Amino acid sequence: MTSPLERHPYGEHAIVLPPKSQTTHDAADIDREIRLLMYRRLHEIRQFEKRAYDMFMQNLVKGTTHLSLGMEAVAAGFGATMREDDYTFATYRGHAHTLARGVPMEGILAELLGRSNGLLGGKGGSMHLTSVEHGMMGSYAIIGAHLTIANGAAWSAQYRGSGQVAVCFFGDGTTNIGAFHEALNYAAVFSLPVVFVCENNLYMEYTAISDITAVPRPAADRAGAYGLQPVVVDGNDADACYLAARDALEHARSGRGPVLIEALTYRHGGHSRADPGKYKPPGELEAWLAHDPLKIYRGRLERIGVPSSALDEIESQVGQAVDAATEAAKNGPLPEQALAYTDVWADGGHSWRN
Amino acid sequence: MTIMSLSKALNEGMRQAMEDDPKVLIMGEDVGKLGGVFRVTDGLQKDFGEDRVIDTPLAESGIIGTAIGLALRGYRPVCEIQFDGFVFPAADQIITQLAKMPMRSLGAIKLPVVVRIPCGGGIGAVEHHSESPEAYFTHTAGLRVVACSNPADAYTMIQQAIRSDDPVIFFEPKRRYWEKADIDTDSTEWWPPLHAAKVVRPGTDATLLAYGPMVKTCLEAATAAEDDGRSLEVIDLRSLNPLDEPLVLESARRTGRVVVVHEAPVNNGFGAELAARITEQCFYHLESPVLRAGGFSTPYPPSKLEEHYLPDLDRVLDAVDRAFGY
Ligand SMILES: Cc1ncc(C[n+]2csc(CCOP(=O)(O)OP(=O)(O)O)c2C)c(N)n1
Ligand SMILES: [Mg+2]
């Protein structure tokens, strides 16, 4: 256990550098097929997010969006390990986790554009992506809300004895809201099959996490308080995420209770569309760009003998898929006004049925 | 006289309050270095320091609880909630403690806490980012609930709210943050009291009651109604709790027709309270029931549908037509 910070150097945080090595997991015991799938996912997320960014910048959509550029490996690694019937709970920064569950791009992109062919008919938007049939149990825009909800879903699996696990992703900033602590205690007390994944990208919006958190590792340093092991992984290395996810899921699935993982990563862009990221200290972004998840993974696959042409081929297939999804999303019809009135009550309507 | 946007007026008001009283503190997520997500506290940390303008952890319940503790010992914290929909984690402390501790302590405790909430829609955001939660708070005794609608009121009301010994829930119409007006910052003589409503356009045939973002909409509706030969009086309530009853009732008795306009859903909205009070006290003066124009009984819609959802000129004038139909 780490002790609390001795002083509080507000606004003077040092640059947090990524791990030094990119070869640590070269020899990891992971099937080549799975690695190729993860490579594809990394690119799907990267190219999707870039397209989403462009479309927001072209003012095709009102409102805002939160991207996972630079954070792709967490979603790719976990997505590749999860069982088809496991549950994902994500935040407003949830495009990546939705893609990682195999939800088709068109529906996600169209949802961002508020079109009828969107995942939620245009009713949820970028921050609320949900696809129950893919185990994507929702994206939540209220900080902390989904951690206890994930517990409930995990508990349902425990009741059914189904062996399903709920995986709940959230940010570093989220570790400071009460709900985080409530959820961990609850999960530990009832040994729930839930895996909490803190994507520590060093910032809560515009504020460095170190300025507002009592310990250096916002999630891992709190694990001990709930009888859990502190786990920190390189969140930019898809294999590191995959291995951590595999262990955690196995632990939770076998009835041994919750796991808390802190994945250290970095968002290349701002918090949301409106944020140019001016608060980032000089040199930080460059250091993390050099530790880019896609770059790391391409290097690894080449070292283990995957021909570059095969990797190029994956990239261009993904590019075509993103283009096709863009066309389909843009051509989707706008929702009817009647959509505003649907599904307030369980019978599908909004006025009471006396 | 200085031309200021509504957000700048709030900023200047807070700056003034901080200069006047060293016990005034600002706290909230990203309010310091960034100056808040809407830049309302821009520059205050630079000028007043990190001890008085505090970037808090992401913890709304913690922010309000801490503010209560500070207020217990004489400080005057001004807390920013980033968006309307994020006040709910704080609602526990607001409703169970902030509103009730003064009464419970037989007045020994005063809690001069201000909770600033950017509210309402119209900026293309979605649920949690466009809502109008005022009725949850007007329903809670012990809280002053106010809503500014224009830069001048923003400037005066924020200072009065900070000086108030009661807790104040302070609603800011986020889609009007960028609207500008000339403000007299040299004198305080023109300042109405915080609880006072204001007739912002006199009229004789019907009264529109509004607050926050809907005041402007109602003024536009009144201008449009002129073409139909109708003279509409527009009242900016400014304070929802306490309510400036005398002013509202006088107008209702004089015009005989009242339409309440708010963005929040009509169902159980603040308009219901107004309608009830006016009906109880002006029954024999009314030419029509008090009518309400507001949001639908649905969650806030996606941005593509928000224009449809938000009360606009047509919905207000339609309600006026109905009032004349009785
Ligand atoms: C209860 C609540 N308070 C405030 C916000 C506004 N807000 C949205 S994201 C965010 C920062 C979250 O930071 P972190 O948990 O690190 O996640 P990241 O955005 O970095 O992925 C804040 C304060 C919110 N959505 N919900
Ligand atoms: Mg973060």
TrEMBL record, chain A:
Molecular function via GO: magnesium ion binding; pyruvate dehydrogenase (acetyl-transferring) activity
Keywords from the UniProt entry: Oxidoreductase, Thiamine pyrophosphate
Short name of any one Pfam family annotated for the protein: E1_dh
Listed cofactors: thiamine diphosphate
Residue stretches making up the Dehydrogenase E1 component domain: 41-336
CDD domains (UniProt xref): TPP_E1_PDC_ADC_BCADC
Keyword check for Oxidoreductase: yes
One GO biological process term: pyruvate decarboxylation to acetyl-CoA
Protein's recorded name: Thiamine pyrophosphate-dependent dehydrogenase E1 component subunit alpha
Annotated source species: Nonomuraea deserti
From TrEMBL, chain B:
Transketolase-like pyrimidine-binding domain ranges (all copies): 4-179
Top-rank taxon, per record: Bacteria
Keyword annotations: Oxidoreductase, Thiamine pyrophosphate
Gene3D superfamilies given in the database record: 3.40.50.920, 3.40.50.970
Cofactor field: thiamine diphosphate
InterPro entries given in the database record: THDP-binding (IPR029061), Transketo_C/PFOR_II (IPR009014), Transketolase-like_Pyr-bd (IPR005475), Transketolase_C (IPR033248)
UniProt keyword annotation of Flavoprotein present: no
Molecular function as annotated in GO: magnesium ion binding; oxidoreductase activity
SUPFAM superfamilies: Thiamin diphosphate-binding fold (THDP-binding), TK C-terminal domain-like
Protein name: Alpha-ketoacid dehydrogenase subunit beta
Originating species: Nonomuraea deserti
